[in-house]
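Support reply, case 0932

Customer input (verbatim):
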Amino acid sequence: TPNFLSAENLWTNSHYLVEVGLVTIPMTMILLVRGIDVSVGSIVALATIVLGVAWERFDIPMALAILLTLVVATLAGLVNGLAITRLRVPDLVVTLSTMAIYRGIAEGVGGGGRVYLYEDPLIRALGESQVFGVSIGVLVLMFALSAASLVLSRTAWGRYLRVIGHNETAARFAGIPVDHIRLTLYTLSGFMSGLSAVFLAARIGTARATAGLGLEFEAITAAVVGGTAISGGEGSIWGSFLGLLLVTVVRNGLNLMGVPSPIQAMVIGSLLIITVLVNSRVRRRGE
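Our regenerated output:
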């Protein structure tokens, strides 16, 4: 379509990459240890509402409201991690439950409405400012991707994730702090969801409880399409980023072509299934 390579379209897509990409980073790490976190979209909604309510109702300066938002989102991720590591509840059950709980809290606190944030200069700066022609959000995402990639590839902690994914029992016998690592990953997932919420609020200029709907699906799809194995132990941060680029390009192209949202969901879902099937066949042949 004529608008695909336009500056405006590329600028819009860069913001979308930031919001999903920040969540995809910890999602990749969680998938590496055979975990999953389907509550990230609800944490984004909760964090967005906290940001709006703190700023509008309680007259908290935006900088402090952003800090409070990150703290609340981090605590939400910590609760997930504690339930998984201390109570021994399966991660899917925990995050499915908190997905509903956090979204419900967001709707209750927000009252079903929305808070307009455009009046604050800090939010406008986060959403519109550029450094050498690159938005602040993209710079933050690139830094986060680089740091996470270095941790996975150049540190013992990063190698532990792959060991846990391949054989958790062997990892425990080897003295690897499996529970501590899982707790750290889910806490990190909460923090990155909060950061994603801040940039989402800056982009759309509002805080509402419907924020982050389907974000967990987008993040998991990006990671899996980028080569991260659902079965754990295999994957990379930059691979997930390439998967995110592919998903974003496909969805954006479908939008520009006027394809209805239900059909778009079917296309992305089919892409995910095909990727999983291809990856599983390649691994079986390799074995």
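We compared this against your earlier run and they match. Two observations from our side: The first strand starts at residue 114 and ends at 116. The chain has a mean pLDDT of 90. Please reopen the case if you see a mismatch on your end.
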